[in-house]
Amino acid sequence: MDDLIFLGIESSCDDTAAAVVTGDRRILSSVVSSQADLHADFGGVVPEIAARAHAERLDLAVEQALARAGLGLRDLSGIAVTAGPGLIGGVMAGVMCAKGLAAGAGLPLVGVNHLAGHALTPRLTDGVGFPYLMLLVSGGHCQFLRVDGPDDFTRMGGTIDDAPGEAFDKIARLLGLPQPGGPHVEAEARAGDALRFALPRPLLDRPGCDMSFSGLKTAVLRQRDALVAAQGGLHGADRRDLCAGFQAAVADVLAEKTRRALVAAPVPVIAVAGGVAANGAIRAALEQVAARAGARFLAPPLVLCTDNGAMIAWAGIERFRAGHRDGMDLAARPRWPL
Ligand code: KG4
Ligand code: ZN
């Protein structure tokens, strides 16, 4: 095994992250500075605020990542950075930071696709071999990827409108729960009756692995409005039952589409990533589908499911091993399909 050590830098959304990872899958440090507090009042990530915060925080994140790993720049084999897709101001801040470090220390620079970072995480955490399936379910993404190599991804389907995390957040907003909504909706759902409201399972009648969550959100909105009109407001039980019904519908859709993905690509492992993978009911549903299909179900630790620098460092190592290098002309890309 080689003895590579990479610094990974991530700044494509609202987390400023840096981490040091080795070629034999050790995470020497991982620093994630969340900007959630900066965006909380706006009901979503504000690109201008995000870009400025990344620019201000990147140096410190890198410094801390190196210090916690007990290393200096000269101990590194290379620098990996998210070069897209994402909010362009944040991606540019990360790419500029990485270029400065690489040029200053004479280190190789490797640009990484953020989605490839998520998709290659099971190789870092569990050392899984190719091929495997990845279901990426976060606030911004929802897709099935068949992963055949460090640079070989096939998109098998995904959402045609909202990402599931986005839907969880919107449902929370509709019901007066705090943001980010996912954990609050899950907590309410725990004591709710998922069968009280008839909610749709969008696109299950259509073949393939595409999904839709926007109609489900509208259905919850209608039920809420009907309750408010009938009784002048929502009772605690209404909120719990709506959350439970919504979560069950999302879990059903994800489970059935995962079943189909495993039929279309009968691989030995299905892994999940993204914040929504934290949801216990969804995890349980996916685990069951995987077991029935005879596949191993892998859910990396949550801190590695959500945005982080370790996945970028690792993807950089995989790309570097495959011979990939970038120059000072590495561009930040707002869109970058895998
Ligand atoms: O991957 P992530 O941290 O950030 C990106 O979207 O890139 O995912 C955040 C999303 C939010 O929409 C949040 O509401 C959702 O993941 N989430 C959950 C849970 N925890 C976080 N959704 C459902 N159940 C949860 N327990
Ligand atoms: Zn992400």
TrEMBL record:
- What remark does the entry make about the cofactor? Binds 1 Fe(2+) ion per subunit.
| Catalytic activity line of the entry | L-threonylcarbamoyladenylate + adenosine(37) in tRNA = N(6)-L-threonylcarbamoyladenosine(37) in tRNA + AMP + H(+)
**EC number from the UniProt entry:** 2.3.1.234
Q: Mention one GO biological process in which this protein takes part, according to its record.
A: tRNA threonylcarbamoyladenosine modification
Extract the Pfam families matched here. Answer: TsaD
Query: What UniProt keywords are attached to this protein's entry?
Result: Acyltransferase, Cytoplasm, Iron, Metal-binding, Transferase, tRNA processing
Named from the GO MF annotations, one term is:
tRNA N(6)-L-threonylcarbamoyladenine synthase activity
Q: Which residues bind substrate?
A: 136-140, 169, 182, 186, 279
**According to its UniProt record, where is this protein mainly located?**
cytoplasm
Taken from the UniProt entry, a GO cellular component term is: cytoplasm
Stored NCBIfam families: gcp_kae1, T6A_TsaD_YgjD
What is this protein's name? tRNA N6-adenosine threonylcarbamoyltransferase
From what organism does this protein derive?
A: Paracoccus aestuarii
Q: Coding gene?
A: tsaD
